[in-house]
Target: TetR family transcriptional regulator
Amino acid sequence: MPSEEPKPRRRQARGERRIASLLQAAANVFCTSGYTAASTNAIAREASVSPGTLYQYFPNKEAIAVELSERLLHQMRETHGQAFTPANLALPLDRMLDAVLDPFIAFNVENPAFLALMHGSEPIPGQIAEEHDALHASLLTRVESLLGHYLPDTPAAERHQVAEMTFALFKAGLDLVMTHEGAERDAYVTELKRALFRYLDPLIGDAAHPAESGIHTP
Model:
């Protein structure tokens, strides 16, 4: 007896496209209105569908936010892999900053909903907050490991403090990067890298003669 026919691929592809469209609409609304003020009706309008169509895929706003966050967190974890590589650790400090920071900056520029959901002042669903906290801890661990490559004899507690300060400087600079566009955004990216270089160079002592990378230090 033949097995049951699988769902047609065309239907599956159409459903995936609809979900992607709804998630992009939700991302736009969350960026514009914030999570708390956003509504399923607003998301449906942004996606140019009826609320009934939206409810075929998501039961409520929280489910949309959770699905969107899971996808964004997955992409961010992939960005970890692009940034923290052994090859990057072999670079002078200024070029290492380029190699590590550029993927993270590009990710946030391409996905502004990530900051809107993860770093906004509004409460978000607990599941999202827990996953973000785990991601933050993982990132901090990666930064500490990176510092350990350059500062193997520095006590762990001190490396942790340097990692936290480095991460805080990056987040503060990223806020400025995200609020500007074009040439102004590029200028703030350069300033962010310059600030991190000037903080880390005296500690690491790895780049007394920086290579050409767009970071101009006196």
About this structure: Residues 1-6, 206-214 have pLDDT under 50 and may be disordered. The two ends are 78 Å apart (CA to CA). Residues 66-204 form one domain.
